[in-house]
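Bumping with the actual sequence this time:
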Amino acid sequence: MCLIHENDGISRRNLIAGGLAGAGVLAAPAALAQEASGSVTTSRPSSPEEALQLLKEGNARYVANAPINTDHSLDRAKRAQRQKPFAAVVACSDSRVAPEIVFDQGLGDVFVVRVAGNFINEDGLASLEFGAAALGVQVIVVLGHTACGAVDATIQSIEDRTLPPGHLPSLVEAIRPAVYDVMPEEPADLLSAAIAQNARLNAEKASRSGPVLAELKEAGKLMSVAGVYDIATGKVEFL
């Protein structure tokens, strides 16, 4: 899928010139906001804190079974012309985790990066940099979830001292640091502890990643947080 369209009001040349290197990146979101003002279905938040609050309020609606973003045909023509998400969510590929639904946001409001185990690799960082610098994302949520199979497989791999077949070892390698962090504490529920720690580590990774994300955070234009989605209740606990 191509992330860059001429209809978005930017080109590859503009993206680079907008400042995806060094301190120049700090001007990119403000400049691009003039090109595509506001998201399709919500008022544009004025700060990262307000962006996070919109997600929290949306999750509360979802838990209460009172969503407001149910007509996905609404503003379809506008979405065809541009996207202006206010939040990015790094989510697991688990079919039970759908960030737009979990946070009750409209199409075009959330920039989603998904991989089994919701960790951030180089491709994920590049996607988040695009979302923050070019599209004006103000908050990054790394969203773990209960009963995560990728984290459970990593625990089993460590305990059995074996690696799964195929390309699965790359997932284990990415998630392993979180398991090692919590194992010495001997938690009653190792899986839940590792899921939470995996989300924390990757949220920290996003906030430290320079020059793009780290400088936006330093300027107060971006925040990165961790959360765990309870599949049974629908509630997101922010860590």
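The tokens above came from a reply further down the thread. The longest helix spans residues 190-208.
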